[in-house]
Design goal:
Length: 186
Amino acid sequence: MADSTTFELTLPELREVTAFAAACASPALPLFEQFFPDDDRPRAALAAAAEFADGGKRGRALRDTSWAAHKAAQEARDAGHQSAGDAARAAAHAAGSAYLHPLPNPTQVKHILGAAAHTARALELAAGPVDSPALDYLDSAARLASPTVISVLRRYPPSPPSGGRIGELLRQLDTALRGRAGKQPV
């Protein structure tokens, strides 16, 4: 039973959120592997997320692969490959989405939408300043969100006004999905 500071979040809902996050992160994976073809940490994070979404355990593999993908992201950024860094971070968020907490805290929105925001940024960085695919990608990500994902999202306050460009992309998707609540999927 949830108290006044929490709300109900079921395992099937967590699985659906994680499936959404993994689907959102998948398009960015080639941007990481282009620079780091022998580093399987982001791919392992996506595999762990998919396994959980398909009924697997929410256990150590999810946490470990999420942290490993975060480390790969930092290493990619340190090596000067910003798009690869955001691609790896998208995979990390996909695995980490299984640990969404039922707390009415706006920072939890990143567990739901972080994979999409980092994928959009990775695509944007890879395309360069002339033609940014980020907004088109966010439209695609919004179409991937099921009514269950939107219902879970609406239990949280809107994403906070911080986080630089990733925060902007996250808020754009957050606003679009909340505006779609109660409507039929596109």
